[in-house]
Amino acid sequence: MGMSDYVEKGNVRETPFGYTLSIIGGKWKMLIIYILAENETVRFNELQRKLGTITFKILSSQLKELEADGMIVRKEYPQVPPKVEYSLTQKAQSLLPALEQLCEWGLKNQKN
User: Fold this and answer.
1) How far apart are CA 39 and CA 81, in angstroms?
2) Is the pLDDT of residue 2 over 60?
3) What pLDDT score does 40 carry?
4) What are the residue boundaries of the HTH hxlR-type domain, all occurrences included (predicted)?
5) Does 6 have pLDDT greater than 60?
6) Confidence of residue 1 (pLDDT cuts 50, 70, 90)
7) Residue of 103, 104, 35, 39 whose CA lies nearest to 66
8) Segments making up each domain of the chain, as ranges
9) How far apart are CA 27 and CA 61, in angstroms?
């Protein structure tokens, strides 16, 4: 089935492709998933450092959205200072082969 098979006379947002983009679309979510895939568990500050220019507020909102969509798990440890780790769910891990294909496309097409 191609992408056009899903798009009939309706709103593209209601298609499986639209659903996928609603989960991983935008500037940061795929990068967050990529970092978590490479590192298994990552703390907030480490994520912010690896992403570079993302603000605290935006990273926080992106993580909350990914958690609400069942893509990441937030684990809080009761200690001082508080320790919070993020990791991928099985749902997110099932997306990794598609992200690998995107990386391969980038490798072939990125200008050096």
Assistant:
1) 22
2) no
3) 86
4) 15-112
5) no
6) low
7) 35
8) 28-109
9) 13
Element of type H or E holding 65? helix 56-68
Residue 46 corresponds to which tokens in the numbers above?
A: 């480490």
Mean pLDDT across 6-22: 75
Cα dist. 8→11, 12, 13, 16, 52 in Å? 8, 8, 12, 12, 40
Burial class (CB in 10 A: 0-12, 13-18, 19+), 36: buried
Residue whose token pair is 């780790």: 85
Q: Residue 87 pairs with which residues in a beta bridge? A: 41, 73
Give domain 28-109's CATH number out of 3.40.50.720, 1.10.10.10, 3.30.200.20, 3.10.350.10: 1.10.10.10
3-class state of residue 31 by DSSP: helix
Residues 83, 38: Cα–Cα separation, whole Å: 20
